[in-house]
Amino acid sequence: MTFDRRDLLKTGLGLAGAGLASASGLRGALAADGPALPASLIAAAKKEGQINVIGLPPDWANWGATITRFQALYGVKLDSANPDASSAEELQAIRSLKSQQRAPDVVDVGPSFALIGAKDKLLQPYKVATWKDIPDDVKSADGLWYGDYFGVESFAVNVGVAKTVPQTWADLKKPAYKGMIALNGNPLGASAAFGAVFAAALANGGSYDNIEPGVEFFGELAKLGNLNPSVATPASLIAGQTPVVINWDYLSLGYKKQAEGKADIQVLVPTGATPYGNFYCQGISAYAPHPANAKLWMEYVYSDEGQLAFLGGFAHPIRFNAMVAAGKIPDAVLKTLPPADAYKGVKFATQDQAAKAQKVVADMWPRVVKI
Amino acid sequence: MAPRGENLIRARVRAPVAWLFIGAFFAVAAAFMVAPTAMLAVQSIYGDDGFTFAFIASLGDYRYRVAFENSLILSIASATVGMIAGGLIAHAVLRPGAPTWLRSAVTSFSAVAANFAGVPLAFAFIATLGSLGLLTTMLKNLGIDLYAAGFSLYSIPGLTLVYSYFQIPLMIIIITPAIQALRPAWREAADNLGASPGQYWRMVGLPVLAPSLLAGWILLFGSAFSAYATAYALTSGNIGLVTTEISNVLSGNVMEEPGTGAALSVGMIVVMVGVLLISTRLGRRAARWTPRR
Question: CB B253 to CB A1 under 8 A?
Answer without folding.
Answer: yes
